[in-house]
Amino acid sequence: MSKVTSMWAEDFFRKHPVFTVDEFGRYLSSRGQNWSRAKANLLSYHKKTGHVVSIRRGLYATVPRGSDPLQHQVDPFLVAAKLAEDAVLSYHTALEFHGRAYSVQEYFTYTSAHPLAPFTHRGHVFRGVHFPQKLSRKKEEQFGVVEADRSGTSARVTNLERTFVDTLHRPDLSGSWEEIWRSLESIQFLDLEQVLRYTQLLGNATTAARVGFFLEVHADSLMVKEKDLAAFERLRPKHPTYLDRSQRQAGRLVARWNLMVPREVLERSWGATL
Fold first, then answer.
1. Rg of the chain over all Cα atoms, to the nearest angstrom
2. Of 65, 67, 126, 266, which is most buried with the most CB atoms under 10 A?
3. Can you give the residue range of the structural domain that contains 22?
């Protein structure tokens, strides 16, 4: 291994705290030659010397000089963001990324056209889910997806508007209703036109009702007008449905949204004895 080649590798590692084998190969190829053999040799060498650690097949993390590779904490957001070429940090993970989650979770969720099976790395569980089918049919998987910086590395994540709707669309991926409600209440501003457009793209009446109900309850803080609520009301279910269809808890029917809402959500009586 030449000194120049080693310097190139170390330069790459400094700029990529988490990287895929393909990214490393493209970097070496950009130097003007076919580095397929050098790629394997370099990774093997730096893994043995503790400069990089393997997270799973094809995915590595850089270990800073002087750090113990067995103790080094790899950024789980970057791991999730690198688990597929089209990976997008989503749901509760996106809330955490934006600093809006009420509490942290051990699960890190990303969406992809080809998500991997869940796996665990150093106490964190990584799970991939498919893009919503209706988005894929309309070729709108990238609606509300932004590039964000994370430790000098670009990560794709849903913006606050899409994250807000996604969290209500898939509550099973975002925690308890207390977690969902308290997290979403920390959002100070939303582009309501974008929220409406994304809700329409999802084409789910229950989701539209959940979004409309939340916006109505928080109309003052989010500067929601009656005309905004009316647009979501037109998308509501035709018949009463449960806020959480998987649990079907007893509650009160909120007629405007045709939603049966549990008492703990209506009264924010989290954990109270009924």
1. 22
2. 126
3. 3-62
